Amino acid sequence: MERLSAPRFKRLLLTGAAGNLGRVLRPRMKHYCDVLRLSDLAPMDPAGEGEEVVQAPLEDLAAMQSLLKDVDAVLHFGGVSIEKPFDVVLPANIVGAYNVYEAARQRGVKRIVFASSNHVIGFYSQGETITPQALPRPDSYYGLSKAFGENLAQFYFDRYGLETVSLRIGSCWPEPTDRRMLASWLSYDDLERLLVAALSAPVVGHSVIYGVSDNRSTWWDNSAARHIGYRPQDSSEPWRAQVEAAHPYVDPSRPEVRCQGGGFVVLGPFEKDPAP
Amino acid sequence: MERLSAPRFKRLLLTGAAGNLGRVLRPRMKHYCDVLRLSDLAPMDPAGEGEEVVQAPLEDLAAMQSLLKDVDAVLHFGGVSIEKPFDVVLPANIVGAYNVYEAARQRGVKRIVFASSNHVIGFYSQGETITPQALPRPDSYYGLSKAFGENLAQFYFDRYGLETVSLRIGSCWPEPTDRRMLASWLSYDDLERLLVAALSAPVVGHSVIYGVSDNRSTWWDNSAARHIGYRPQDSSEPWRAQVEAAHPYVDPSRPEVRCQGGGFVVLGPFEKDPAP
Amino acid sequence: MERLSAPRFKRLLLTGAAGNLGRVLRPRMKHYCDVLRLSDLAPMDPAGEGEEVVQAPLEDLAAMQSLLKDVDAVLHFGGVSIEKPFDVVLPANIVGAYNVYEAARQRGVKRIVFASSNHVIGFYSQGETITPQALPRPDSYYGLSKAFGENLAQFYFDRYGLETVSLRIGSCWPEPTDRRMLASWLSYDDLERLLVAALSAPVVGHSVIYGVSDNRSTWWDNSAARHIGYRPQDSSEPWRAQVEAAHPYVDPSRPEVRCQGGGFVVLGPFEKDPAP
Amino acid sequence: MERLSAPRFKRLLLTGAAGNLGRVLRPRMKHYCDVLRLSDLAPMDPAGEGEEVVQAPLEDLAAMQSLLKDVDAVLHFGGVSIEKPFDVVLPANIVGAYNVYEAARQRGVKRIVFASSNHVIGFYSQGETITPQALPRPDSYYGLSKAFGENLAQFYFDRYGLETVSLRIGSCWPEPTDRRMLASWLSYDDLERLLVAALSAPVVGHSVIYGVSDNRSTWWDNSAARHIGYRPQDSSEPWRAQVEAAHPYVDPSRPEVRCQGGGFVVLGPFEKDPAP
Amino acid sequence: MERLSAPRFKRLLLTGAAGNLGRVLRPRMKHYCDVLRLSDLAPMDPAGEGEEVVQAPLEDLAAMQSLLKDVDAVLHFGGVSIEKPFDVVLPANIVGAYNVYEAARQRGVKRIVFASSNHVIGFYSQGETITPQALPRPDSYYGLSKAFGENLAQFYFDRYGLETVSLRIGSCWPEPTDRRMLASWLSYDDLERLLVAALSAPVVGHSVIYGVSDNRSTWWDNSAARHIGYRPQDSSEPWRAQVEAAHPYVDPSRPEVRCQGGGFVVLGPFEKDPAP
Amino acid sequence: MERLSAPRFKRLLLTGAAGNLGRVLRPRMKHYCDVLRLSDLAPMDPAGEGEEVVQAPLEDLAAMQSLLKDVDAVLHFGGVSIEKPFDVVLPANIVGAYNVYEAARQRGVKRIVFASSNHVIGFYSQGETITPQALPRPDSYYGLSKAFGENLAQFYFDRYGLETVSLRIGSCWPEPTDRRMLASWLSYDDLERLLVAALSAPVVGHSVIYGVSDNRSTWWDNSAARHIGYRPQDSSEPWRAQVEAAHPYVDPSRPEVRCQGGGFVVLGPFEKDPAP
């Protein structure tokens, strides 16, 4: 892909650098900064030139205070990225988000790009198109934690002026592999475009935008987020024939087919029922 | 045109197959199914390979019950397609629509693509842009019958889960021939794209979308129907010069110029006045 | 009740005068006109002073043309008022409404008050509050026919300037008798107030308003119809204790409990299934 | 006050029974149930007739599983009710809310009335009126935790059908004591009316409503929550003269005056800044 | 009437004190301040106790700079209050409004209550209900000048923090005298209530509210302006019978009947046509 | 650029022909008419073939009456185009706009394209996307005068049927030169496309549209103005790198950075403060 022109940052922080998207973003985001600081709970490849690698758990505030030092902007992709029991989601995604924001405030960071998720609005129907102003309908503990993160971002902007773009990321994979992803797919190149736009828009306050490619069909209308300057260039269409061949029929009366959140809407419950 | 990728249907039913659009669609829709069943009140060309031809009036419920047997999905283009006295519109478009939906329910059909019309909203001004959520302002008995059909579709979805995409078709002709059609024109290729999208979107509930090409100017904003996946490829623009040359001036104070429904808004009344 | 002040009409027409509400309205509406013309398909009590009684089927256009002669305004309460098979609803409520409007146009009638119904929007949840601008979600053939009537009224206003107030009447009975009616009840006195307001508002175009008393809970917000000047004075509250005692528990997962249309949403289907 | 008629519950659970509002509600809610179960982290007065008293921390899931047993409906007033550092708010209000909902799901509880707060939307201006559909703008960690609770309620309804009314309570004190409370005050009697309405409305899904009396001025328009059936009877007006005398001037350029959340919007930060 | 409790002002300025409403307000507003400064272009009664009388044209900036000195808040009722040729409206209402705002800014005045008018939105139909957010549709040069004043108020708030409540006053007369005024009437007592509310609401930014009594029918829904705390106590209803008797029929097809602005919508043009 | 097809006008009037945009438009608009009449207060180049040059002040009504004679449509670009003291803006932009509209009405002109400005809505944040229905938030006397012009246009359409397209022009310069203009830039070619669309749309009533190119980021969503048929072809993107290099950091807490109006929002005040 042709890289977007963008202002160069001195130091960007990418959390969740050992995760699926973190590994995709590591080489890409290096193009936009002098130093790319990388963090994760899990081990990462050693630091290359212009990289800093810091292994640290999000739920450790002191670690986050160190991590956020001398950082211009944060790409917060850390935490649990799939549905898990609440006591797993809580420290990573709720406490972790708090720690990142609080440390960012203390360190004077100006902007965070927050990897939110379509699972914040997963209970809307695939038979409707929604905007970034749609009220949350989370479909999972994971979705709840991302809704918490969006509210946290709103609070830190209203209270302290720390700006955030919350990306409600669809399905970010190498290619779309089922019928839902024909609508929800976000290519890696478009993810990069979206991050660059979110980092370089001069003013964002707290803005919400769906992270989705220019798919022929989608459930998300980003018209109200044009100020961010994201223009997707990819589409799921080239994969349509093979996906539709592999999944010839879906039954819209089943919640996991009908809802935008797909399979997440039927996961759980995780807790064992108590004795009667 | 390059055909859209789409799941293949076993049997599609096209009503109104002898009509203007029916004749256009007959060869086109054959590409998307094993068997294309064709019906009309009027005689049709004999069945070709993979075709079934059934002459039947929409107002005959028993005939519709037979017609809908073993059908996967319906393209309901049958009925009166221009303004007529109410007693002509009634059996074809109101009773007929009821019969098609009721028979479809009985036969377990999963989806109907309903040829609704811009005349459902014909009394809006050409000086405004409306969305699929615009409240009906029908401009004729014909428009009233199509508004009835849309409500019927909503009822059969809410009550029985039978899904519909209602297409508020603009002006579907070989080419645009007057200034109104520069905005309302739908090319035959785009009509096909729209039908394929409406048939193959995994979940539609009851969705409404305007059937219009990608004309430079239009009165219809389909942003709220992006989930259907319709992306028009054609435009009225190549015909603009000749159309504007042929119709140099239109007077916006005349209802038929001002309203989106065009000439329909001044047709009628049809009934003779009673003795005083 | 204290009668509302209102301009006196020379001749009002009340259709459906032999029906439940027609019989309630007959003595009441006499106060607002010199002559009250009463019509129904069924026999009615003989005409009293200042009354005219005309037995006539709504589906007979010629009869309607006679009936509408020399009438200032119409209270159209005629037709089927409960759910029935489509072929019963059709002539009475769809053809009948057309005949009344067309005859009214021919006879120069200025305004119609149309007894529409909450069943036009019966599939909305009782867990939400809707406005007169809510898109139709009819719950029955009856509801479909009333939605048709509302669209017809919009057409006759846009096309011919004939004004209508469409009343989406809730549950108009002597008293509320189940938990749904605690929200949907319309007292007879409030019905009268509503009719007088709808008749005497100087300008209404085509306006829609919910016909409901000032119940403590309701699903309908008439703020957008304040121009009509309806102010209910009654409430279902005095009946609450006895109703709740008689119906201690309702299960909100059942459609007939959850939906605003109540039991109507599960009536039908009426047609026998065809041979397989 | 005259008690509202309401269906009688077998067993209601009131969490936070030792708190300010809990103590107010304890004698009041007894009128609506056979058994009132009371819980809090802190000690409570011993159980009276028809009462059960259970001291238990919200952050203990097993304790909640016991507590929710054989309960018809829950009034969830437990947790921290003022602004505190995040690590204090987290266990009580976020983990606690999760535990209550999860235990309620396991125990088959049908409805929860959730004591949310105006601090969910505290950063809106006092110079505007908002509806229950306003997007969250929390003003504090406390407000964030209540926004989390509302999203949790939405999730448990969408996923499991457990119904909630979220009450965005204003200022619930014996009387209004500053100029902000002239708008935000909720009397104890109106709180009781609100709870009874929220418990007895037949269908609520997840509904949000502002908890505020019928004050002359307010920032909250509950029109969209009429289905709940809350009609406040009290007003801050009788206290206006003394409040305005005591607080003659407020400077609208200061955030704590300008914002609906009042003083909460300037509390914090609580964390000590890290070493530079 | 019982006076509203309100904070006492040291000095209020009432412009237009010699006008119809100015004379009504002079004795009333004295109750809320130590000193009531009165100004007009025309002569006024001599100053009574606690009054200051200043004859000054609004179009004289220097005079306004003197007039606004030591003023807490302004009731700006000055200027032309009926339709006039543009060159009459311009100096009094456009230049005059600018002078008042600019002088108020220079003198540190905190709040202005601006007598705007329903003629800002006079071209809306009487058959609809609008909110304070309705886009302007002025019906006259007078209405245009009031729309200018509202925009000016918005500018002075956004730019300088000077707060305004813009009152879109309906028909403020001793009693309603025609059918339009049954909807648009504002009693003098309600005007006083509205002014006191607008002066004493702690935070208003720039808020717009319709100045209308609690008439049975109206075209204006003030729900979105509840933060101002205006609760009308009067109604046009007691005059209805005599008004309707005097004006038995109005033809809704005539613009002056159909439009909210009434007769204003057909005044003019005033300019003589130029030589052809 | 390839010229748009458009109906040919007999005589177009371009006011402000000596201004920045006027000089750009003079050779371009000549393509769409037989005669291009040019006017300005300042001297202009002598008339070429098919041109008429008239030096005349907008504030002279008689001059405008002569100027508007035999004109089909007006491109009203005259007046002050930057922020100036109110007494400079007033005659040129407020009186001048009135004179142009009044003379146009007298002369039977059918349509005006009004050069409004983004400064009508300059106080909205760059962190949000607004539509043509956004309520005015003018950022300057200049912006106020343009808001007046838009209201004037609405009045002349509602009252006299004279149609207008109001163009809220962004930053129309040869190229974007700062970060704000990356979002607000309108190329000269796109300006021409916009004018041709506004002149040739058959029906516009009074429509508002943002004048902006197809920039990657923008604050303006023209979806609701699709009926005008404007499709921008240019973008600020090619200039991004050099602009961002020249302006590496902007502080979003400063009003002139945060607000859509840019530097205009901090201009002024112009009046000297009066003696204390």
UniProtKB/TrEMBL annotation, chains A, B, C, D, E, F:
Name recorded for this polypeptide: NAD-dependent dehydratase
Gene3D superfamilies in alphabetical order: NAD(P)-binding Rossmann-like Domain
Pfam families on file: Epimerase (PF01370)
Family as reported in the entry's similarity comment: Belongs to the NAD(P)-dependent epimerase/dehydratase family.
InterPro entries to which the protein is assigned, alphabetical: Epimerase_deHydtase, NAD(P)-bd_dom_sf
Domain of life: Bacteria
Single annotated GO MF: oxidoreductase activity
Organism: Roseateles puraquae
Record-annotated NAD-dependent epimerase/dehydratase domain positions: 13-171
Keywords: NAD, Oxidoreductase
Claim: Electron transport is one of the keywords in the record: no
